[in-house]
Write the structure tokens for this entry.
Amino acid sequence: MRYAVVHEGVPVGHVELSGGELVAGPLTPLPALEPLRATVQEGSAALLALGFFGAATATVEHDAEAALRAAAAIQLDLADPRGELVPTTFVNLLEAPDGGLVLLARFGHAHARVPAEREVTPRNASDAIRPPESHA
């Protein structure tokens, strides 16, 4: 399914994602992504240095933690073709070693707007039978 990727209400790209709970797909960026691009690149470089894409590199920059925090702070949402926001646990962008952008998302579960009605049924026949009242 095709989703719009939205940052603060502004579309920054599009992605095709398959079904599943944890999904990834290549991002087709829009010009509105440009102000976030450096932060995504720095966060991705920090993950690369830590071994996320393969073997860890020998030197890990001292500011890797700051780069990871800044990249994680980018609030992204997914919108379906009708423009409705899709419940997600997270939506993150990574720049792959080949320069392409990859979106990772975990779909959340929508909360019901109306509580479900639950019918209470007895566990077994003896639960449904009341003992006779004594009239002593």
Q: What stands out?
A: The longest strand covers residues 22-29.
